[in-house]
Design goal:
about 325 residues, five-stranded mixed beta sheet, elongated, Cytidine Deaminase, domain 2, 2 domains, alpha/beta, binds zinc ion, eight-stranded mixed beta sheet, 19 strands
Length: about 325
């Protein structure tokens, strides 16, 4: 039996990816330094069509991805997120002749990874290694994934590539604590802050009563946005600057539903940012995206301007009859 080695963090990420019961496929990425090549991460491929049972891929995408991989990075196999254990070795070999085929199969007690050797179709063992790749290599893979999506499905990046979202450390900590309080349900809200050129400063978040809150979905009424603006008043420096929601235990990404939701949101506010937070990932994971659903720089600063207005907003929203009950406003630690 062939032994494939996989970075433990990458394996965790693959297990988390299996949400919504839909099939997805991607390329395993690694370095051709050993045989078989170790697996450092994966990049999801844009599906040409998908349903519960099948997913179609364009072989040209595999070639395109190989071109944008960082120095020394190579496709080392295929990843399939399958609703049930499937044998796709034969189909997989039309995309890639050699390497590992890793299937993620959803299970009640944590999704399971199965591995086969693509060339032979034989069952292979997948050995997880702590920190198989350093952090630099991991961000190389992420950068490659970004470049790849831009080429394939993206419109070009906005003219100002320096879009960034700045968050004060006290606010980041308060939001992580808030998100940890709901370990089994996503919670969504309105990000509040100020804008300076291409930079968004997030200063607080207002979470309305949730119309729906499940393990992989959350919803709130769009009318709540008007309630926030009303509570802030016309002279407030603090304005809605985007959308924030939690992904407890799921890792950070924009799901299909998230992309649809955020496209609607950013049609009304093209400079809106989307923040996604998984407070249960090691060290908490954050993702910031611009209105084109592209990752932007998220900078957490030790010292950031705190807005006393957030405390005022919390009081205004809590006032009976104002916006309905059940609002929660999260701001930096020292605003009340
Ligand atoms: Zn989401």
């Amino acid at each position: 039996m062939i032994d494939y080695f996989i970075d433990a963090a990458a394996a965790t990420c693959m297990r988390r990816q299996c949400v919504g019961g839909r099939m997805w496929a991607g390329l395993l990425v690694g370095r051709a330094s050993a045989s078989p090549a170790p697996i450092h991460g994966h990049v999801l491929l844009p599906p040409m069509g998908q349903s519960g049972e099948h997913v179609r891929l364009d072989p040209r995408h595999v070639g395109l991805l190989a071109n944008v991989l960082p120095d020394g990075g190579v496709p080392v196999g295929l990843l399939v997120l399958a609703p049930a254990a499937v044998d796709v070795c034969a189909a997989g070999r039309t995309l890639l002749t050699n390497g590992a085929l890793v299937c993620v199969v959803p299970a009640a007690d944590g999704n399971v990874l199965h591995c086969r050797d693509l060339a032979t179709g034989q069952e292979a063992s997948l050995i997880e290694v702590e920190d198989l790749c350093g952090l630099t290599e991991r961000s190389d893979v992420e950068a490659a994934a970004d470049a790849f999506w831009q080429q394939l499905v993206g419109e070009p990046l906005p003219a100002t590539p320096s879009w960034r979202c700045v968050l004060g450390a006290p606010l980041a900590q308060s939001l992580e604590a808030f998100a940890r309080a709901a370990p089994r349900a996503e919670v969504g809200g309105i990000l509040l802050g100020t804008r300076h050129g291409p930079t968004t400063h997030a200063l607080a978040a207002a979470f309305p009563p949730q119309a729906h809150s499940g393990w992989n979905r959350c919803e709130f009424e769009t009318a709540t946005l008007a309630a926030v603006c009303d509570a802030l008043g016309t002279n407030a420096a603090l304005r809605p600057v985007g959308w924030i929601h939690t992904h407890p235990h799921l890792g950070v990404f924009l799901s299909d539903t998230d992309v649809t939701t955020f496209r609607q949101w950013s049609a009304l506010d093209p400079r809106a940012v989307a923040l996604v937070l998984d407070p249960f990932a090691a060290g908490s994971e954050w993702l910031a995206c611009n209105s084109r659903c592209r990752r932007v720089v998220l900078e957490v600063r030790e010292r950031a301007p705190d807005s006393g207005e957030a405390a005022h907003l919390a009081r205004a929203l809590a006032r009976p009859g104002r916006a309905g009950s059940g609002w929660q406003v999260v701001c930096g630690a020292d605003t009340d």
